[in-house]
Design a protein that fits this description.
four-stranded antiparallel β-sheet, 426 residues, single chain
Length: 426
């Protein structure tokens, strides 16, 4: 399954198996892209990165690959900058199915330097032949390296199945995430993991998605939390028009959570099937991308604004496909810089048809203008098919991964490379 094209085709393959913001980015003139690392089939390193990267305090990058490693079930890796400007990959953990398989999610650090993430499959072999997925932790060891611990194995489907996205941490150390399948109605859940006194973690389903013509279902995106403790996310299907939703989960005094659908996509010019998560600005407006739809049927960037009456108004900021070199099929979350510009990737489109990185800038009189910063090119030097959240360093450089491409040798029969880590410099 690790040789499949990312996003919805990856989930289709799995269905068959189971039935920084740190500183203002300077204004861009000509942007320069550089591949920092190319993954390859060498029996050790990772292959096919499907998630975004995070930095540690030393400027090293951490991420996951859906394939490769010692057992070909995926890896957690670190890419570190050397003194001469080169970057070196180190595999921190190879998944072996029993402890998880196929990590498609980004990672998150806690204050102690521990890493948390999810795997789409693996874990309990009694659940399904592909496993139901896991939530894991990697702890740094005193002598160097990391030690993996499975915090939770999804085991019966009712507790969730196939966590496609990663988890987030609240201030007290609880983890929150979504599953694409499972739950009471089999179409996904929102879950919480709480550390228990004396060790161990307790899982609780906060919401069971259902296909009732109102609720959304099949969430492939991670969550965000506001200052009041509310959770926000997206679903790829469901809602009034069965084209996906944006939802909010609010904690109640009694300890339960109440879900509210903030917006139902209508399969028209507003886009449909948002596979990516959301970002929020200082005014509480939500921003995201829909994989399909829009004026040119290539996806959209949208904004949701809260209204005084409790409703939300959606505005399409950009329709992909409006010019020849524009991107298509945006499948990742957006990234803000400190002056309010938005950045993101598309898995398709661009000058060569292999995806783009773009920038959206708010115009003085209203509206937004889009600029393609880089078009990926399948030339064995560049990566292709970027579908991950981007991050900034303190100098305003952007970093991400591509699912295919790079200069590494890949023995998968596809001939497009095993993926890359890239940097875009303004």
């Amino acid at each position: 399954m690790t040789g499949e094209r990312p996003l919805i085709l990856l989930l289709t393959a799995f269905t068959a198996v189971i039935g920084f913001l740190t500183a203002a980015a300077p204004a861009f003139g000509a942007s320069k892209e550089k591949v920092l690392h190319s993954f390859e089939s060498n029996g050790r390193g990772g292959q096919y990165p499907t998630a975004g990267l995070i930095f540690d305090s030393d400027g090293n990058l951490y991420g996951t690959t859906a394939g490769g490693g010692a057992y070909d079930y995926g890896t957690v890796f670190r890419v570190a900058r050397g003194a001469n400007g080169t970057w070196t990959e180190t595999v921190l953990h190879s998944f072996d199915f029993r402890h998880g398989a196929y990590p498609y999610s980004s990672l998150v650090f806690d204050a102690a330097g521990n890493l948390y993430g999810t795997t789409l499959g693996g874990g309990d072999p009694h659940c399904l032949s592909a496993g139901c997925g896991t939530v894991f932790e990697l702890r740094p060891k005193a002598g160097g390296g990391f030690e993996e611990r499975v915090l939770y194995r999804f085991y019966n489907g009712k507790d969730g199945l196939a966590p496609y996205a990663g988890v987030i941490l609240d201030a007290t150390g609880n983890l929150y995430g979504t599953t694409f399948y499972g739950g009471a109605d089999g179409v996904g859940t929102v879950f919480e993991l709480t550390p228990s006194v004396g060790g161990g973690w307790r899982e609780r389903v906060l919401h069971n998605f259902n296909n009732n013509g109102k609720d959304g279902y099949h969430s492939a995106a991670g969550l965000i939390m506001d200052a009041a403790g509310n959770l926000y996310g997206t679903t790829t299907q469901g809602g009034t028009y069965d084209s996906g939703t944006v939802f909010q989960l609010t904690p109640t005094v009694g300890g339960s959570w109440t879900e509210k659908v903030l917006y139902s996509f209508n399969n028209r010019n507003d886009g449909f099937s948002p596979y990516a998560g959301l970002v929020v600005d200082a005014a509480g407006n939500l921003y995201g991308m829909a994989l399909y739809g829009g004026a040119y049927h290539e996806g959209t960037v949208f904004e949701l604004m809260p209204q005084a009456d409790g409703g939300w108004t959606e505005t399409v900021l950009h329709d992909f496909g409006d010019k020849n070199d524009d991107g298509a099929l945006p499948g990742a979350s957006l990234t803000f810089d400190a002056v309010g510009n938005l950045y993101g990737p598309t898995v398709g489109g661009g000058t060569y048809g292999y995806g783009t990185v773009f920038k959206l800038t708010p115009r003085t009189g209203g509206g937004w203008s889009e600029r393609v910063l880089h078009s990926f090119n399948n030339n064995r030097r560049d990566g292709t098919d970027p579908s991950v959240d981007l991050i900034f360093d303190s100098a305003g450089n952007l970093y991400g991964t591509t699912y295919y491409g790079g200069s590494g040798t890949c023995n998968d029969g596809v001939g497009m490379g095993c993926g890359s880590v890239f940097e875009i410099t303004p």
